[in-house]
Design brief:
The protein is 51% helix and 13% strand. By secondary structure, it is of the alpha/beta class. Helix 7 packs across helix 9 and helix 7 crosses helix 10.
Protein backbone atom coordinates (compact mmCIF):
# COMPACT_ATOMS: atom_id res chain seq x y z
CA UNK A 1 0.00 0.00 0.00
CA UNK A 2 1.29 3.47 -0.93
CA UNK A 3 1.01 5.56 2.25
CA UNK A 4 0.65 9.26 1.52
CA UNK A 5 1.15 12.26 3.79
CA UNK A 6 -0.37 15.51 2.47
CA UNK A 7 0.87 18.87 3.74
CA UNK A 8 -1.23 21.84 2.58
CA UNK A 9 -2.64 24.70 4.63
CA UNK A 10 -5.99 24.64 2.79
CA UNK A 11 -8.38 21.91 3.94
CA UNK A 12 -10.34 22.07 0.67
CA UNK A 13 -7.15 21.26 -1.28
CA UNK A 14 -6.37 18.33 1.01
CA UNK A 15 -9.91 16.99 0.55
CA UNK A 16 -9.62 17.30 -3.21
CA UNK A 17 -6.34 15.39 -3.26
CA UNK A 18 -7.80 12.70 -1.02
CA UNK A 19 -10.71 12.24 -3.42
CA UNK A 20 -8.34 11.79 -6.35
CA UNK A 21 -6.30 9.20 -4.47
CA UNK A 22 -9.40 7.44 -3.10
CA UNK A 23 -10.09 5.97 -6.53
CA UNK A 24 -6.84 3.97 -6.37
CA UNK A 25 -7.02 0.64 -4.55
CA UNK A 26 -3.31 0.62 -3.64
CA UNK A 27 -3.08 4.21 -2.34
CA UNK A 28 -4.25 5.80 0.89
CA UNK A 29 -3.83 9.16 2.58
CA UNK A 30 -2.91 8.32 6.16
CA UNK A 31 -1.89 11.78 7.31
CA UNK A 32 -2.70 15.45 6.79
CA UNK A 33 -0.79 18.51 7.95
CA UNK A 34 -1.66 22.19 7.62
CA UNK A 35 1.76 23.53 8.67
CA UNK A 36 5.36 22.50 9.23
CA UNK A 37 4.85 21.61 12.89
CA UNK A 38 2.00 19.20 12.19
CA UNK A 39 4.03 17.64 9.40
CA UNK A 40 7.09 17.07 11.58
CA UNK A 41 4.87 15.61 14.29
CA UNK A 42 3.39 13.05 11.88
CA UNK A 43 6.62 11.93 10.24
CA UNK A 44 7.81 9.43 12.89
CA UNK A 45 4.35 7.91 13.33
CA UNK A 46 4.21 5.98 10.06
CA UNK A 47 6.43 4.53 7.35
CA UNK A 48 5.46 7.00 4.64
CA UNK A 49 5.78 6.14 0.96
CA UNK A 50 5.63 9.77 -0.18
CA UNK A 51 4.94 13.31 1.04
CA UNK A 52 2.86 15.67 -1.11
CA UNK A 53 3.95 19.13 0.00
CA UNK A 54 2.47 22.51 -0.88
CA UNK A 55 5.18 25.05 -1.68
CA UNK A 56 3.30 27.98 -0.12
CA UNK A 57 2.94 27.03 3.55
CA UNK A 58 2.48 29.42 6.50
CA UNK A 59 5.54 30.09 8.65
CA UNK A 60 8.23 28.00 6.99
CA UNK A 61 7.93 27.89 3.22
CA UNK A 62 7.58 24.61 1.40
CA UNK A 63 11.16 24.86 0.18
CA UNK A 64 12.44 25.39 3.72
CA UNK A 65 10.40 22.41 4.93
CA UNK A 66 11.71 20.35 2.00
CA UNK A 67 15.30 20.99 3.03
CA UNK A 68 14.49 19.97 6.61
CA UNK A 69 12.87 16.77 5.32
CA UNK A 70 15.88 15.91 3.18
CA UNK A 71 18.12 16.31 6.24
CA UNK A 72 15.95 14.38 8.70
CA UNK A 73 14.13 11.88 6.46
CA UNK A 74 16.14 11.61 3.23
CA UNK A 75 14.56 8.25 2.41
CA UNK A 76 11.04 9.71 1.99
CA UNK A 77 10.45 11.15 -1.50
CA UNK A 78 8.66 14.49 -1.75
CA UNK A 79 6.33 15.70 -4.50
CA UNK A 80 6.01 19.47 -4.48
CA UNK A 81 2.53 20.72 -5.28
CA UNK A 82 2.19 24.35 -6.32
CA UNK A 83 -0.12 26.90 -7.86
CA UNK A 84 2.98 28.44 -9.43
CA UNK A 85 4.46 27.45 -12.78
CA UNK A 86 7.59 25.36 -13.17
CA UNK A 87 9.44 28.49 -14.29
CA UNK A 88 8.77 30.09 -10.91
CA UNK A 89 9.67 27.37 -8.42
CA UNK A 90 10.29 24.08 -10.23
CA UNK A 91 14.05 24.36 -10.56
CA UNK A 92 14.51 25.47 -6.95
CA UNK A 93 12.35 22.58 -5.73
CA UNK A 94 14.25 19.90 -7.64
CA UNK A 95 17.62 21.35 -6.61
CA UNK A 96 16.45 21.32 -2.98
CA UNK A 97 15.74 17.59 -3.19
CA UNK A 98 12.17 17.19 -4.43
CA UNK A 99 11.42 14.11 -6.51
CA UNK A 100 8.80 15.93 -8.55
CA UNK A 101 6.98 19.19 -9.17
CA UNK A 102 3.29 19.38 -10.04
CA UNK A 103 1.01 22.36 -10.57
CA UNK A 104 -2.23 22.17 -8.59
CA UNK A 105 -4.20 22.75 -11.77
CA UNK A 106 -2.75 19.51 -13.16
CA UNK A 107 -3.40 17.42 -10.03
CA UNK A 108 -6.74 15.93 -11.15
CA UNK A 109 -5.12 14.29 -14.18
CA UNK A 110 -1.49 13.83 -13.12
CA UNK A 111 -1.33 13.36 -9.33
CA UNK A 112 -1.69 9.57 -9.38
CA UNK A 113 0.81 9.25 -12.23
CA UNK A 114 3.29 11.48 -10.37
CA UNK A 115 2.95 9.50 -7.14
CA UNK A 116 3.43 6.15 -8.89
CA UNK A 117 6.47 7.34 -10.81
CA UNK A 118 8.15 8.79 -7.72
CA UNK A 119 7.36 5.83 -5.43
CA UNK A 120 8.92 3.56 -8.05
CA UNK A 121 12.14 5.54 -7.86
CA UNK A 122 11.65 8.00 -10.71
CA UNK A 123 11.37 11.77 -10.99
CA UNK A 124 8.25 13.62 -12.08
CA UNK A 125 9.18 16.69 -14.12
CA UNK A 126 7.77 18.08 -17.36
CA UNK A 127 9.75 18.79 -20.51
CA UNK A 128 10.12 22.51 -19.72
CA UNK A 129 11.60 21.82 -16.30
CA UNK A 130 13.82 19.07 -17.69
CA UNK A 131 15.26 21.56 -20.17
CA UNK A 132 15.93 24.05 -17.38
CA UNK A 133 17.72 21.37 -15.37
CA UNK A 134 19.87 20.52 -18.38
CA UNK A 135 20.76 24.20 -18.81
CA UNK A 136 21.48 24.54 -15.09
CA UNK A 137 24.17 21.88 -15.24
CA UNK A 138 25.67 23.18 -18.46
CA UNK A 139 29.27 24.34 -18.18
CA UNK A 140 28.65 27.96 -19.12
CA UNK A 141 25.31 28.56 -17.42
CA UNK A 142 24.92 32.20 -16.37
CA UNK A 143 22.68 32.89 -13.39
CA UNK A 144 20.11 35.64 -13.52
CA UNK A 145 20.04 37.95 -10.47
CA UNK A 146 16.85 36.42 -9.01
CA UNK A 147 18.39 32.94 -9.11
CA UNK A 148 20.89 34.07 -6.47
CA UNK A 149 18.18 35.04 -3.97
CA UNK A 150 17.57 32.83 -0.96
CA UNK A 151 14.38 30.74 -1.03
CA UNK A 152 12.63 33.12 1.39
CA UNK A 153 13.77 36.18 -0.56
CA UNK A 154 12.53 34.58 -3.76
CA UNK A 155 9.18 33.76 -2.19
CA UNK A 156 8.68 37.31 -0.93
CA UNK A 157 9.81 38.75 -4.26
CA UNK A 158 7.08 36.77 -6.05
CA UNK A 159 4.48 37.83 -3.49
CA UNK A 160 5.38 41.52 -3.82
CA UNK A 161 5.39 41.26 -7.60
CA UNK A 162 1.95 39.66 -7.45
CA UNK A 163 0.63 42.78 -5.72
CA UNK A 164 0.47 41.59 -2.13
CA UNK A 165 1.01 44.21 0.57
CA UNK A 166 3.65 43.91 3.29
CA UNK A 167 0.84 43.43 5.81
CA UNK A 168 -0.69 40.53 3.89
CA UNK A 169 2.71 38.90 3.31
CA UNK A 170 3.47 39.17 7.03
CA UNK A 171 0.21 37.43 7.92
CA UNK A 172 0.59 34.67 5.31
CA UNK A 173 4.17 33.88 6.31
CA UNK A 174 3.68 34.42 10.06
CA UNK A 175 6.45 37.00 10.24
CA UNK A 176 6.52 40.67 11.26
CA UNK A 177 5.99 43.54 8.84
CA UNK A 178 9.48 44.81 9.70
CA UNK A 179 10.90 41.45 8.64
CA UNK A 180 9.06 41.71 5.33
CA UNK A 181 10.58 45.16 4.76
CA UNK A 182 14.03 43.81 5.65
CA UNK A 183 13.67 41.06 3.05
CA UNK A 184 12.35 43.55 0.50
CA UNK A 185 15.38 45.79 1.00
CA UNK A 186 17.72 42.83 0.52
CA UNK A 187 15.87 41.89 -2.67
CA UNK A 188 16.12 45.44 -4.00
CA UNK A 189 19.84 45.46 -3.28
CA UNK A 190 20.55 42.10 -4.90
CA UNK A 191 18.45 42.85 -7.98
CA UNK A 192 19.58 46.48 -8.12
CA UNK A 193 16.00 47.75 -8.03
CA UNK A 194 14.49 50.73 -6.25
CA UNK A 195 10.74 50.15 -6.01
CA UNK A 196 7.90 47.63 -6.03
CA UNK A 197 7.03 48.80 -9.53
CA UNK A 198 10.52 47.98 -10.81
CA UNK A 199 10.35 44.64 -9.00
CA UNK A 200 7.04 43.79 -10.66
CA UNK A 201 8.41 44.76 -14.07
CA UNK A 202 11.46 42.56 -13.47
CA UNK A 203 9.26 39.61 -12.46
CA UNK A 204 7.05 39.99 -15.54
CA UNK A 205 10.08 40.32 -17.82
CA UNK A 206 11.51 37.05 -16.46
CA UNK A 207 8.18 35.16 -16.38
CA UNK A 208 8.23 34.84 -12.58
CA UNK A 209 4.56 35.70 -12.13
CA UNK A 210 1.52 34.73 -14.15
CA UNK A 211 -0.59 37.59 -15.47
Amino acid sequence: MIKILIADDHSIVREGLKQIVAEESDMTVLGEASNAYELLDLLPKEKWSIIVLDINMPGKSGLEILKDLKNEYPEIPVLILSMFSEDQYGLRAIKAGASGYLKKASAPTELVLAIRKIVNGGKFINDSLAAKLADEFGEKQKHLPHELLSDREYQIMCMIASGKSAEKIAVELSISINTVYTYRNRIFEKLRLKSNVELTQYAIRNNLIEL
